[in-house]
Amino acid sequence: MLREEEHYEVLIIGAGISGTALAYELARYTDIEKIGIIEKYEDVATLNSKGTSNSQTIHVGDIETNYTLEKAAITKRTAKMVEKYCLQYHYENEIIFSHQKMALGIGEKEVEFLLHRYEEFSELFPYLEVWDKEKLKELEPKVVFDENGNERPETIVGVGATGEWTTVDYGKMSKSFIENAQKEPNTTVDISFNSQVIKIERDTKRGYAVHTKDAVYYADFVIANAGAHSLYLAHQMGHGLDFACLPIAGSFYLTNQMMLNGKVYMIQNPKLPFAALHGDPDVLANGNTRFGPTALMLPKLERYKKGTYWDFWKTLRLDGRVIKALWDLIKDSDIRNYIFRNFMFEVPWLNKVLFLKDARKIVPSLQKSEFKYAKGFGGVRPQVINKREKKLMLGEASINTEKGIIFNMTPSPGATSCLGNAERDLRYIVQYLGKNFDEQKFKDELTEGEYCVLPEPVEAELEHVNEIRAQIKATHERYYQDIEAGKPAEHFWDKPFSNIKRKKK
Ligand SMILES: Cc1cc2nc3c(=O)[nH]c(=O)nc-3n(C[C@H](O)[C@H](O)[C@H](O)COP(=O)(O)OP(=O)(O)OC[C@H]3O[C@@H](n4cnc5c(N)ncnc54)[C@H](O)[C@@H]3O)c2cc1C
Q1: Where are the beta strands (DSSP E) in 260-410?
Q2: What is residue 495's predicted lDDT score, i.e. its pLDDT?
Q3: pLDDT (tens digit, 9 = 90+) per residue, 345-363?
Q4: Spacing, Cα 302 to ligand 1 middle (Å)
Q5: Cβ(411) to ligand 1 under 6 A?
Q6: Which protein residue's CA is at the shortest distance from atom 19 of ligand 1?
Q7: CA 396, CA 171: separation in Å to the nearest integer?
Q8: Which of 219, 291, 475, 492 could be cross-linked to 488 through a Cys-Cys bond (beta carbons 3.0 to 4.6 Å apart)?
Q9: What is the distance in A from the centroid of ligand 1 to the CA of 227?
Q10: With a 6 A CB cut-off, is 380 part of the ligand 1 pocket?
Q11: Ligand 1 and 227: CB distance under 6 A
């Protein structure tokens, strides 16, 4: 519990995964002695970092098809930190879980795209494998067969991995950060719940005065890890006025049984800043399959909490530049259709019919009776609009005022990058306060060396990929030979390219 009028070296606003990860790193790797955390609600991680609010994925960049090689190299380093932290404290199967995972390419265009991507990324992620339909029948049969037990007609390929750490309960991880931070000797980590920061003021003698309804606290350095509300607080102080926040809610659908053995991600449309639709076992729902997330613009900053409509308008700061950024989005027919479709995903009854069509791309046998809208699941991604560039930013935003106060907004994959973002802020804070950072201990415990050096493409990989292409071609040829021999498979006439073959005869 924070003590009123107390002076802290660092005050963190928000006890989600970003705020708690920073508290942990400051307590464990620096000589900062007094850290305070102010949280609006009754517990740690009740908003987007809660286990049921997000997709529980460690986004490494290997199966996220919208990540460039450069982005994946950076994400790999920060994602590895999550894994290293969990293993250090033996949180296997309690906070961190291992499932197989893949990006699924459907149809020849997507298959070729995935094979190309594999060529480019396999040196950065040497564990990646390419799985053709036969292999997928073994690993993830539900992506291959329809409700009658027939193979889906399209060519499919999975690029993925087994035996990697893939899944995290980020809510539990946030709690563990606080517990472990508070165990550190020589550092006090105080936390106050049910305390909403309503105002921050520069205090010439004592750094900053941070006001809640009932108390005021002082700090040399303040960091707002309050999601969309970070921008709200920044605007109040006249910072970040070139940014606006567009809250994009994400919902999920849950099946009544376990359908998938691991994570199956679809190919991402690079124009969209949200993770592609996927299905995977939910670690908080007995491994039943969770499909989603959807993406819907909501006029409020927090999901499943009262109010915050007015806060939305204040952080949007609607003007010509915001309208231009939104208009540019809506002008694109892909994005327009996507927005419209996602709106429909929230309309009772219709949502299931529409969502079924999308989810069947992953599990062709899926029936309407086998899944339901996951009530209470999902959260809000605070996507940031850069007003100067009149554009929606695709990732996180951090406003460092260089005056002892930082404001962070963290849409996806903010949970994966919690320790990496905390490292960025920690480095600045110790420099600003003249404190020390035990970098060696940090590197030994949380990193596996640097990954940002990009690899050269490797000839051997090309060869391997071409073998896979040849294998797919051979499977097709065998298939047609069977037909020539007069024993067509039952589902032959469903094949989209079957007509072309017939015309040639
Ligand atoms: C549908 C969906 C799926 C996602 N999937 C993934 C995924 O698979 N992998 C991944 O890495 N990321 C994912 N994300 C993103 C990830 O969940 C977030 O980036 C992350 O949880 C953000 O953490 P945070 O601590 O910054 O914010 P939050 O978890 O939102 O925490 C902010 C905290 O600040 C507090 N707060 C706000 N205002 C105040 C105030 N004025 N005073 C005091 N406290 C305040 C709030 O109460 C809250 O506790 C997903 C997000 C969504 C919505």
Answers
A1: 263-266, 278-281, 289-292, 296-297, 371-373, 379-386, 391-392, 397-400, 405-409
A2: 37
A3: 878 888 888 889 989 999 9
A4: 10
A5: yes
A6: 414
A7: 20
A8: 492
A9: 6
A10: yes
A11: yes
